[in-house]
Amino acid sequence: MESKTIDFERGWDHVYKGIKQLRRILEGLPEPLFTSGEYVMLYSTVYNMCARNPPHNYSQQLYDKYREVLEEYITSTLSPSLRGKRDEFLLRELVKIWVNHKVMVRWLSRFFNYLDRYFVDYRSLPALNEVGMTCFTDLVYREVQTNIKDAAIVLIGKEREGDRIDCSLLKNVLDIFVAVGMGSMERYEDDFEADMLRDTGAYYSRKASSWIEEDSCPEYMLKCEECLKKERDRVFHYLRSSSEVKLIEKVQHELLVTYIDRLLEKEHSGCRALLRDDKADDLSRMYRLYCKIPRGLDPVADIFKQHVTAEGTALVQAIGAASNAPGVQEHVLLRKIIELHCKYMAYVTDCFQNHNLFCNALKDAFKVFCNNTGTDSSSAELLATFCDDILKKGGSEKLSDEAIEETLENAVKLLAYINDRDLFAEFYRKKLARRLLFDRSANDDHERSVLSKLKQQCGEQFTSKMEGMVTDITLSRENHAAFEDYLRSNSAAHPGIDLTVTILTTGFWPSYKPCNLNLPTEMIKCVEVFKGFYETKTKHKKLTWIYSLGTCNLSGMFDQKTIELVVSTHQAAVLMLFNTSDRLSYSEIMDQLNSTHEDLVRLLHSLSCAKYKILSKQPDTKTISRSDYFEFNSKFTNKLRRIKIPLPPVDEKKKIVEDVDKDRRYAIDAAIVRVMKTRKVLGYQQLVSECVEQLSQTFKPDIKAIKKQIEDLITREFLERDEENPNTFKYLA
Amino acid sequence: MHKLGRSHRDKVQQFMTITGASEKAALQALKANLYKRYKDPYTDMILVDGITLLCNDIQVDPQDIVMLVLSWHMKASTMCEYSKQEFFTGLQALGIDSLGKFRERIPFMRSELKDEQKFGEIYNFAFGWAKEKGQKSLALDTAIGMWQLLFAEKQWPLVDHWCQFLQARHNKAISRDTWSQLLEFARTVDTSLSNYDAEGAWPYLIDEFVEYLNENGIISNAQSMTDWSKK
């Protein structure tokens, strides 16, 4: 670097020559490009004029000259070419001069580069390229900004109407808006985007108002989807990505939000109609369109809920009105409800992407009609019976294992919608007991799988007793093997009759009435033998015998042939009385047996007035009266070698409901105490709602029942009312 | 409270002169005399006969509500009997040391029922007093009798309906909570039930009562209630 001072005029002269050369190149005149040597010379000249001590330091003057040169260039060459031009031509010209301007700034900055290095920072002045930008903004941009904005928006409008436009031109124009912002998007947003959005809004508002009149809901939705896609493409092709969110929101607002009610409520093609006609595709589209809009899905979910509720209610009523036999009716009802559930679950999963709103809508809908069966039996009982029918022998032998599993799975799902879950548990337990004890269970695996499904759905406590029951049966089998060993090794103790005993753990099993029936001696001996065996195993447990659950195989020596009779233990006790007497009156039987009237009537009826008349009755009426006489009917015969004499069970429904009500009172009591123990002081409304919450897994408590328990707890001095505010309760430790 | 009337003063003076006792002791002795008059011959308590005699002396019907007020002052634990302690507590509280004084205090005791605060205390006291010793609840018949007595003073228009309702629908003893909340109900809820909060923490029985009133169309007759109550 030559280190000599240089006179301003001379230095500037040199530089200015270079600038003129640059301008000629830019104009496209035949001018050689700068050699690196020439460039170095120019740079050095500037350097020499700046890297000096005053008074030979011409940095400020050069800085000012830089600006002057640019301004002169713009006003003389660039701006004029814009004048008089409009629309697309204006845009094209603008892009052209912008390119030129950028080149000019780039080269000039290279020449004047030394200023950028020190002077600019030293004096905290704008850098050279900033100066360049400002000149362009002040002299070109400000004049034409409105026109180019309008021209751009017009082009976009044309594209919306289907014309092809020059996307790269638009992109370049929008680049200018951004560049002019010098690091911020303010110019782009204020000078272009705002109006573009407004124009977009107006455009779609016009379109929507005519489409909503003419088009069906699916057609309208298709158009919306297309428009949204096109707008996204627009962003991709020329708009800035920061515009996407605002643009889409605008479009959605005009097309979807403004007309949401009219669209969904369209009579023949709106949401309700789509559901009715199973239009899954259209519903999926509806979901896609509205899921991004805040609260957009709420009306859709609402209509869905109403629709499912209506369908379910109609179903329940239709089946209630049909004249099938009672048992069949209820079975059909549950199957249909399960079908309905599967159908609409599919909607939730496929069309509505398992969205929370729709899951809850489905749940709420089912809760409404699943609890009103319109029959005498509660839905809890119906569901338990339904499961029993499938699980017992002869229930569903025609179905494949998979089909059974699926049906049971669906049945358990329905339990979530039933309020009285504890009632279901009780009915299920009772029926499970019968299945297990009378060996009526079709398939152990299915039984276990249902229990595990119930456990998953309702918690461990729900199924712990039932699981205990199943375990008891398994243990009993093992126990029986041990009993047989015992008999083999103590042949003297053998009662002479084959005996199988099932041991039930109290607490797991439903409670049974104990009975004091007098058994025939043969049976008594059996009981004694077993007791002896059991005492060898454990001395701590007490056995209570429940003969009402037992079965007995008797050989009936009839005149024609011997038939094996499969009867209950009680029935057997009655029949064996006739081994020692030919004829017995009702009261004699009553005395010998020590039964209750209710039970005896049932027993005798099953043996003398039902399908198989093992005993003959005098008089030969259809009902049992206390003055009847009975004889062994030796003339009885049947083509089968072995028949089962059924004993219809007592209707336990009332007792079950009573038991559950009692349990509920305890549960409510415990819940209130739990809540108050933690909270110490609580208002009435809150106490009630927390109790309901705590109990919700098991059942839906009656508010009156909660109130009664609260008052009971006040009397028992667990709680008291607050003196100042009788609506608040305090826990008394 | 202990201002002595002329003749009374004389008596006390007399007593003091004769026995040489202080005024206070003299008064005590007079009270003890009263107690001796009414107490049962075999137990150290005032029982039914004694109470009857007392009522006679002070010219008050035994069924009169004033007896309840008296019992309240005595903090009596149960009706139809007063312990010695309770009797003296009552006399002390009312500033009574002679029958004359006793009679004089009757109007005052009646007036106490008009005081909102005191009425509330007396009302709540009545529950414990009227029920059987050792029971937690009050027998229905007794409760109804007490309510009719009390609400004759306080003028609650729905009292008869309430009693009818209980006899028809409830037929069981009344808990303390129900008893005390009923007063709140009578005080705060107007006869047309317009400000009754069904979601509130009113006892179950009161909710049922409201249902009963609505079912039987009694509420729409609220207007005629106000006239009728001015019997």
What does this structure look like?
The complex is a heterodimer of chains A (733) and B (231). Chain A is mostly helical and 733 residues long. Chain A has helices spanning 8-27, 36-50, 59-82, 87-111, 113-122, 128-160, 167-180, 186-214, 217-237, 243-257, 260-264, 271-276, 280-290, 297-321, 326-351, 356-370, 379-391, 401-415, 421-437, 444-458, 460-489, 521-537, 569-577, 586-593, 597-608, 653-679, 684-695, 703-715; strands at residues 551-557, 562-568, 583-585, 615-618, 629-632, 642-644, 681-683, 719-721, 728-731. In chain A, helix 3 runs parallel beside helix 6 (128-160), helix 15 (326-351) runs antiparallel to helix 16 (356-370) and helix 17 runs antiparallel to helix 18 (401-415). Chain B contains 12 helices and 2 strands, in the order H-H-E-H-H-E-H-H-H-H-H-H-H-H. A two-stranded antiparallel ribbon of chain B has the order 1-2. In chain B, helix 4 packs across helix 7 (116-130) and helix 7 packs antiparallel against helix 10 (176-188). The longest helix of chain B has 16 residues, at 23-38. The interface between A and B is medium-sized, with 14 and 14 residues.
